[in-house]
Specification:
The protein is globular, with a radius of gyration of 16 Å. It has one domain (4-219): Aldolase class I (TIM Barrel). It is an alpha/beta fold. The chain has helices at 18-34, 47-51, 76-81, 98-110, 122-128, 150-153, 155-166, 182-190, 200-203, 208-219, and strands at 4-8, 37-41, 58-59, 86-89, 114-119, 135-138, 173-176, 195-198. An eight-stranded parallel sheet has the order 2-1-8-7-6-5-4-3. The protein contains ten helices and eight strands.
């Protein structure tokens, strides 16, 4: 599998509406120019519009147990209809229980969609790998948004998670939390990660295209 970059746009003012769609367009352009796979998870209201710009669109969250009279939920069927390829599951800011994680991954898979389970550490990564998601993204919560990369501050979390998950089923492992530049990306790959997951560093960058191009080049 070729290394990849996953971008979570969260719900920052800088990633809403036209601003968010511009960030999606930049990701599309950089991916096309470099050949690097770039997944983007826009705000929910922008999923359909984003999927018309870039093919690799993920939802930020999905509700596995909803259908019919469940106001305010987002189903796998809905994100598929919006043109998405998959969804994040269990992000540190939207954690759910193990049973719900397993059922969310299964329902996504049943709809032909990919899944990226977010985890907080190595033991949780190994435990949740049994659900066979498309990806696992390990992110120590204390480093999210810190600007201090997990690959620098806690390299053992990255390498340890890669090794632990490999013993279960070899699900590709990404690392996130504090990833801010090409050097962080390069270090993550050296530690065995299949890619990186980041948010604020991209969304709030003064020159997001230059930053993303730098990260993409670090993967090649």
């Amino acid at each position: 599998m070729r290394p990849l970059i996953a971008l979570n746009l969260k719900v920052y003012p800088e990633s809403l509406g036209r601003k968010g769609l511009e960030l999606v367009r930049i990701a599309h352009d950089v991916g096309k120019e470099t050949g690097v796979r770039i997944i983007v998870a826009p705000q929910a209201v922008d999923l359909a519009a984003s999927s018309k710009i870039h093919k690799d669109i993920f939802a930020q969250h999905v509700d596995w147990n909803a259908e019919g009279a469940f106001t305010g939920t987002t189903t796998p069927e809905a994100i598929k209809a919006a043109g998405c390829l998959g969804s994040l599951v269990n992000h540190s800011e939207r954690r759910i229980g193990d049973e719900a994680i397993g059922k969310a991954v299964a329902r996504l898979r049943g709809n032909g969609l990919e899944s990226m389970i977010c985890t907080k550490d190595t033991p949780e990564s190994a435990r949740l790998a049994v659900f066979e998601p498309t990806f696992i993204a390990v992110e120590p919560p204390e480093l999210i948004g810190s600007g201090i990369s997990v690959s620098t501050a806690k390299p053992e979390v990255v390498s340890g998670t890669v090794q632990a998950v490999a013993k279960v089923n070899g699900t590709p492992v990404l690392c996130g939390a504090g990833v801010s530049n090409g050097g962080d990306v390069r270090k993550a790959i050296e530690l065995g990660a299949a890619g990186v997951l980041l948010a604020s560093a991209y969304v709030k960058a003064k020159d997001p295209k230059n930053l993303l191009a730098e990260m993409a080049e670090a993967l090649l």
